[in-house]
Amino acid sequence: MSFGERLQEVRRDNGMTQEDFAGQLKVSRQAVSKWESSRGYPEIEKIIYICNRYGVTMDTLFAEEVPLGRRAGAAAAPEAVESRTLKTALDGFYSNLSPSNKWIGIGSLAAVALLIPLCMKYMKGGTDNVMTMLWVAAIVLFGVVEAATAGLVSIWFVAGALGALLAAMGGLGVTAQVVVFIAVSAAALAVTRPLVKKFAAGKAVPTNLDRVIGETCKVVEVIDNANSTGAVYVDGKTWTARSADGTVLPAGARVEIERMEGVKLFVKKYEEKAEVVL
């Protein structure tokens, strides 16, 4: 079963349509369709998210993506890697964006396209010319960094650079422009950061994977942290497991799940509590 078929199986097992799945991953439905038809792969952070949220391992998703050799002991001939051009890279990046992010990107490009001729109109030569170009470059640079990281790390400076650009167009000196840049950036950070955090917290979708924490289960593979081995069976699935205190736990032992890190469970030996007789 290919990666696309495995991914489709995960989605259907969780009762979701392609639109629902795309909404969870913040991508377009077309991107999910492309993955499920084996015409592409998600980004690594999205693969990790899928594993964490839906309780599936990378080994399960990619089990048949790496072909075995035709004969035992004989190395399989490596397949040619498809060359990736700038066009295909951009197509992949665009298709992985959600519809809302696509409109935001198009709007940002349109704003920059309108800003450049406006700046050229106000250029007067000399220092004003240099500073105007500097602030335009800063807006583009911070915008590209924000688009690449999508982590709210430089959007504040875009606002600051825009304020400084307007100050340069108004004829203010370099020192005043720098002060405006710092002040507007700080104000944008102070005003929008709490709102963004509140919005992100409100949109967070709880996961049901943590329901296994505190459950008891059976060891199906010897848990030995030193040799990086171990697995338990719980909630109808086999999970990679490690000992929470470093103790080697034999196959067949009853253990209690203490915590989860990624798709790995940390367990400890289960101790039955003695019943208190009144």
| SS element count, helices | 10
Helix-strand sequence: HHHHHHHHHHEEEEE
Provide the helix percentage.
Answer: 40-55%
Mean pLDDT over the residues: 75
Side by side, the strands of the main sheet go 1-2-3-5-4
Summarize the structure.
This protein is α+β, with helices and mostly antiparallel strands and 278 residues long. It has helices at 3-13, 18-25, 29-36, 44-54, 58-61, 86-95, 99-122, 126-149, 155-169, 174-203, and strands at 216-224, 229-234, 237-243, 254-261, 264-269.
Mind explaining what this structure looks like?
With 278 residues, the protein is α+β, with helices and mostly antiparallel strands. Helices cover 52% and strands 13% of the residues. It has helices at residues 3-13, 18-25, 29-36, 44-54, 58-61, 86-95, 99-122, 126-149, 155-169, 174-203; strands at residues 216-224, 229-234, 237-243, 254-261, 264-269. A five-stranded mixed beta barrel has the order 1-2-3-5-4. The longest helix has 30 residues, at 174-203. It is elongated, with a radius of gyration of 27 Å. The model is unreliable at 68-77 and 202-206 (pLDDT under 50).
Write out key terms for the chains shown.
alpha+beta, 278 residues, single chain, 10 helices, five-stranded mixed β-barrel
Layout of secondary structure:
Elements: H1 3-13, H2 18-25, H3 29-36, H4 44-54, H5 58-61, H6 86-95, H7 99-122, H8 126-149, H9 155-169, H10 174-203, E1 216-224, E2 229-234, E3 237-243, E4 254-261, E5 264-269
Parallel strand pairs: 3-5
Antiparallel strand pairs: 1-2, 1-4, 2-3, 4-5
Helix pairs in contact: 2-3, 7-8, 8-9, 9-10
